[in-house]
Design brief:
mainly beta; five-stranded antiparallel β-sheet; 42% strand; five-stranded mixed β-sheet; disordered N terminus
Length: 183
């Protein structure tokens, strides 16, 4: 079992996960954190606008793919929640940027052949988006507390661009684990 997956307590025989704060360094194996903190920026439009430049690597051109910009509206998931399945997009990256001020959870595993030992769980706060690298395993959107909107940049075009995998042992996310970081 990796150091990033920790048993906190027994929950009906299922493992629970420790939640980590979302940082560029911790999330790097899975893609990009989209945040203004530490981003390259410069003034434009006669100094009236600050441009925060190149915040994530959009990778969608496999098999003549094209970038799409969409809005996803995610309902909050009730806790405790049992994680049973992850997905990946082998033909392109997928970026999510929240429009709400509410935190949300990010559940990921390393790209490539699925390895449950690489599972990680992050708490994303206001102003923090994620860009899943091509092929990175992840759970669907996980809004907390209330319905939340996200701007999504991902791939459109031909080819099968969604694989799913079922965990051999479900992981439970508890209210206590979320509350520990979301103070």
């Amino acid at each position: 079992m990796s150091s990033s997956l920790r048993l906190l307590r027994d929950y009906s025989g299922l493992a629970t996960m420790r939640i980590e704060m979302l940082t560029r360094e911790a999330f790097a194996p899975f893609g990009d954190v989209i945040t203004l903190d530490g981003a390259q920026h410069y003034p434009i439009n006669d100094g009236m606008t600050e441009r925060f430049h190149d915040l994530a690597s959009v990778d969608v051109s496999d098999q003549t793919g094209k970038p799409l910009i969409s809005l996803f509206r995610s309902k909050p998931r009730a806790l405790p929640f049992e994680v049973k399945v992850l997905e990946r997009h082998p033909l392109g990256s997928q970026a999510f940027f929240p429009l709400s001020k509410l935190p949300y959870l990010v559940i990921v595993a390393a790209p490539g052949k699925f390895d449950e030992r690489s599972l990680r769980l992050f708490l994303a706060r206001q102003g923090e988006g994620v860009n899943y690298a091509k092929g990175a395993w992840h759970h669907g959107l996980f809004a907390l507390y209330a319905e939340s909107d996200f701007i999504v940049v991902d791939r459109g075009g031909p080819g099968v661009n969604c694989d799913e995998v079922f965990l051999t042992q479900s992981i439970v996310i508890t209210e206590e684990a979320v509350r520990e970081l979301d103070r």
